Amino acid sequence: MKAMILAAGFGTRLWPLTIGRTKPAIPFLNRPLIAWTIEYLRRHGIDDLIINLHHEPESVRDQIGDGSGFGVKISYSVEEPEILGTSGALDRVRDRLSSDTFIVVNGKIITDIDLSAAISTHRSRQALATLVLRPNIKRERFSEVIVTDDGRIDRFGGFPSPDSAGTTDAPLMFTGIHIIEPGIFDFIPRNTFSDSVRDVYPKAMTAGRIIAAHVAQGSWFELSTLERYLAISLEFLGREGRDSIMDEGCRIHTDAEVTKSVLWKRVKVRRGARLSQCIVGDDVTIPEGAVFNKSVIVRADIAPPGQRPEKALPGQVVGENLVVNFG
Prior knowledge:
Elements lengths: L1 E5 L20 E2 L2 E2 H11 L4 E6 L4 H7 L8 E6 L6 H8 L1 H4 L4 E5 L2 E3 L3 H11 L3 E7 L9 E3 L5 E4 L15 E9 L15 H11 L4 E5 L4 E3 L3 H14 L5 E2 L4 E2 L4 E3 L2 E2 L4 E2 L4 E7 L4 E2 L4 E9 L15 E4 L2 E5 L2
Parallel strand pairs: 1-4, 1-6, 4-5, 8-12, 14-17, 15-18, 16-19, 17-19, 18-20, 19-21
Antiparallel strand pairs: 2-3, 6-11, 7-13, 8-11, 9-10, 21-23, 22-23
């Protein structure tokens, strides 16, 4: 069985961490985020992978290569000149996915959901596609998925109300994990942008095809915003009794303080500086006596002026650094 990892997005809400790299290429606990997805698939016996790329494609290829370092085989589909969407991405490689059931996974998640159990549900339901869902206990801003009593997807709804967070009747949300039959290509338009949830699955359901739901347990994390990136990093670190992490080449002055923070490669924190709940990019120097809280800090010279994405938080240049406050 083959799998496709979706890694072509711009990651605008993670800007400025996505300057020069696509979202799945950012480090999470000192490893590329996409590496967690690759290893998740391999644990379930799936080792023939396709990764689609668009924004800063070399940032993934340089770190992942042909997959041999992870015990898998990887090929790439670079979408140029335009990004193609989740189903448009499949259309571009339909010749490689047309012979058997395949998996599609979003490249920005970390999970231990039992994929083998989801595949069993898919086969028992004889579905065209099966979407892996989970209860959205916290009522976070993920679209609701409405499921019929017989386990079919009925429709995709809006965001849940946060007022009833923690109740037992939590809405269901999509995890970004699909199990799909090649027959889905009958519903995917050729050579154009298309989205699975908005365009393709509704068309298949209207035609009477089964789009099934598999409601899963297990942990699931989606790193799509600066605040979520830091919170999830700290949660993982807390399991190990740590509150901060530093990558190779970092130097922290003995009179500096770093708490609840993530430091990428070769960060220098000078005398008297204080960092709390910060994410610090490669090669940043935190000046003597500087104090930052709930901030992302990258080198200002990597961020061309006037090129902040529309959905990104605003930043300001402070000395040699670009600082974006969040939370």
